[in-house]
User: What shape does this take?
Amino acid sequence: MRYILEVGITTVLLLLFARILYSSQHIPFIGAYYTTIFAATFIYVPVMILWWRKRPIDFVDSSLGSFGKGFLYFLVAALIVFPPYLLCSHFWMTWALGKQHFMLAPFPDIWKTAAFQVLLIALPEEFYFRGYMQSTLNRVFAPKWRIFGVPLGWGWIITCVVFAFAHSFVRFQWWHFSIFFPALLFGWLKEKTGSITAPVFFHALANIASDWIIRSYY
Assistant: This one.
């Protein structure tokens, strides 16, 4: 029960802070450093809690070999998932949204965009949700299923639900419920590799791809 209370209270307070932070971007300092403040908060708060509780941060790679394993799983997952994802996105944009024209959108600042997505968006979100939350909830909910060789339990599902809800709590968009589905893969990758490297890179690539698709159809 103490793990559930810990995660629940921490998550509620962080989401309230994120909502207030998002709503305060009209303040010059917050507007200029919004993503940096967000990223720092979602990394340092769980670090402080784990340090206080004397639990290890065992979801971050401790060796180059471990990092390489995570990056390899990211590449394999991307090669499997993104071709059908791009095809489905095409039909969604043309049939559901009525976009009639397609032209490859430019990426003039691709490396800057990639660094932003990895370091300030994907890393803090995966550190908190897949690293801290999912790992903590795994202490409460024993694995119930084995999916493609990976033991998973309700901690995986709960983390995905909260992750999707968190986006709409901070800034409501009707389609935020769909974030639950890629979150399933993020959580699977974390359990498969033992670290958040693969979900961080996959998360960042998914964000970049989504933005590129939206800008390519008109």
